[in-house]
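sorry for the late reply, my laptop died twice this morning and i had to redo everyting from scratch. anyway the thing you sent over, i finally got around to it. pasting the sequence first so we're on the same page, its 268 residues, then the predicted structure underneath. double check i copied it right bc i was rushing
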Amino acid sequence: DRQRIQQVLQNFLSNAHKFTPNGGTVKVIIEALNDPFRQNVYKTSVQDSGVGISEQEQLKLFLPYSQIRAEELQGGAGTGLGLSLSKTFIESGHHGKIGVSSSPGNGSIFFFEIAYEISTLTPSSPSGSRSQLTPMKSSSKSLTTKSNSQLQMSQINTCPDVLIVEDSKLTRSLLIKTLTSLHVSHDVCENGLQAMEFVAVKNGGYKLILMDQEMPVMDGLRATEAIRGHGFMGYIVGVTGNGLTEQVNTFLNCGADRVVAKPITRAV
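ok and here's the structure:
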């Protein structure tokens, strides 16, 4: 979670620097909030003196693949996923709040609010005795927010061969066991939106994606179509509990190279 908080903040800072002209300012502000329902809630804001954003443009800021004046301000660069993924993580992962305050010509303030756990280092710690803030995970039992999440991602500077996208804990475990026995490196996530994030972070370097069809947040059909739409050239195998020809063809039309029915065997 600490890594993802850093990614959200890095995304805010990157956008602020991108849209602030030379000589402008970018500030990071952290403040404690008085929340009657939760303890240790902090608001982190990134304030810039850039071009600003109209109310109409703000409505689509946090939508997947949405970019504001991409050609004019970004030279066509970027994926339009950063703010959408940040919103999912803050709101679904931590029951937090994320938003923006801006107007044309007056800069922007992007912010998020989440609760943190406060832990104290022991005196024998090299850093001395002081408090540390750790993002609190949501107590929700949904797949994207549970505290014992099975999400696994390898180091950013490497890319495994396979990405497993599966919401069933049992199926994930079986796939992990199979790939491990074959000495195949892999990442694991639980829904289509997370898969999009993994592919974006790893620059599309996976050789194979095992994509489940029925998942919360974003299903495998939409995820496959979106990932293909952004140039992923690897092999995608759709995994479905429904082997009907119509369902198989739908998956193939979305960009899957092959569709297999559960349960997946080692032979596949």
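The CA atoms of residues 206 and 235 lie 8 Å apart.
thats about all i looked at so far, will dig more tmrw
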